[in-house]
Batch of 4 targets.
Target 1
Amino acid sequence: MTAKTTGKLDEEHDATEETSAEAAEVETSAEAAEAEAPGETAEVEAPGETAEEAGGTERKAVPRKAVPRKAVPKKAGPKKAGPKKADRKTADAETARGDSPKRRVRVAASPRLVAAVAALVFVTAVTTAVIQWREAGRLAGRDRTEQQVRDRSAEFARALLAYRHADLPGARANIRALASADFGRQYETAFNGLAEVITKYKADATATVRETYLNAFDGQRAKTLVILDSEVKSTMGVRRVLGTKLLLELVQEKGAWRVNGMTSLPADDETLTKPDGTVEKPQQGTTPQRPNP
């Protein structure tokens, strides 16, 4: 009886050791699972331990209570800073061109190169300034010449329509000084017949230039339009002519601009006030070379 009981106790003792080993393996697996998934609670059930006392009674298996384990949070490590979007685009563009952003080489400018570039810039600036200065001078010279043409045209028109019966040689000399040689001879012929009328009626005339327009200019020849008003006082009364228009052609002769041709256009208005006060409208279209006194 005693031998049977002892053998039975040995078997129960071996079974208890196997159960403890299995429980240890289960507990180790639970701890590994908790390490992989933090925050979860592992429950491990171990098979109950049985033992028989010496009196042959059996012990009931007592299950182990599940022990909650604290979740161990993973430490948040520093995030690696990735390349910015703009940097990535720049790197992509450089890669597409065959350039490597890591292989940029800065070449220091040579002093000779800097001096050469500075000299080139200086020469360019000076050349541009000279060209502009010459162009400005050319335009200024053209403007002065054009003004000389206008002044000579106005001077000739005023001398043509302004005279004094007591000094006809002086009026003739003024016209010859402003006219070309050919036109001067033509005027002499016309003035000879006009002088008799001016002297007979004791006519004195004045003229005022309104406007002078430059119609054409090529450096050697010019055409102008002169608009002026005139007044002639004589024994016949007072003759007023408004808006007389003279088309003049000028040429350069002996270093000066001179009138070489003339065309007279009808005046805007013309009146004759007689000594008795009556006003008449004389026939218009009279040529200035032969003004009525």
Note: Residues 111-161 form the longest helix (51 residues).
Target 2
Amino acid sequence: MYSPSQQLIHLGLGFMVSQALRVATDLNVADRLVAGERSVDDLAEETHCHCDALYRIMRLLAAEGVFSETSARRFQLTELGAALLSDAPSSPRDLIRMMNREPYLAFAQLTHSVQRVCRRSKPYLESPGSIGWRTIRTRPRYSSRR
């Protein structure tokens, strides 16, 4: 059982987990572990990564139950991690990749967006991507639907 402070810290560090998931997905780590446990050094060589950096990613995801560290620097796939397999039904791989790129960067500006909305009393968030939509809405000549 975690205290409220511990729960909030876990939530606050969620960005690390989401980015680590994106890296593991981009590198197809789950597919590389489907045949059984492997050393992080083998995975790093196969994926052209720095072995210590990849080890930190793998340990972070092991703490979340995505992989399991079976012995020093050796990992295996867990039931949770199996959902990242490229042939898994309803795999969240593409969603993880998509949401942890441009949308992730937009959320880094969330405080700024919320503060601008409050000052201007506009009913929408002004994120970097919303400028184009506002332009199309207010200037129809920029729309492809003329």
Note: Residues 107-142 form one domain.
Target 3
Amino acid sequence: MSYPHAFLPRGGYAVTPSDADANAGIGFRVGGAGDVALTCADGQDLIIPDLLAGETVGIEFTKVLSTGTTATDIIAFRR
């Protein structure tokens, strides 16, 4: 399977969840199991429940929110 170049990450960083500060990305990976609350690129707030340790999610977001996030060791991917 091939993927469009626009969807491949060019870097990443450790996320500190915050309700105030932007921490945008095109996907993320959780190191420790739990829920991830985020604001999607379209402005919708969303909670992705019950992620397993090591799981990767491909979704464009502007914030990983501290309220509602219980997963740990989150790494965001960026273009």
Note: The radius of gyration is 12 Å.
Target 4
Amino acid sequence: MRDAHLRHSTATLLLWQGVELVVIEELLGHAHIGATATVYAHVRLRPPGHRPPRPRPQQPHRHRLQAR
């Protein structure tokens, strides 16, 4: 895998994870955010078919009394 492919894959995965474009710009070393936005304009915020995880129901907190 070439360096360019690794950079592109990393940036794409970061975008899918919700990392802001400004942060990705700094990581990639782009001089202007416009360069980053142009290169990654085709990337969706979430991959196709992505389903957010279901929140787990909150379990009531139970205190146990210790026998003495």
Note: The chain is about 45% helix and 0% strand.
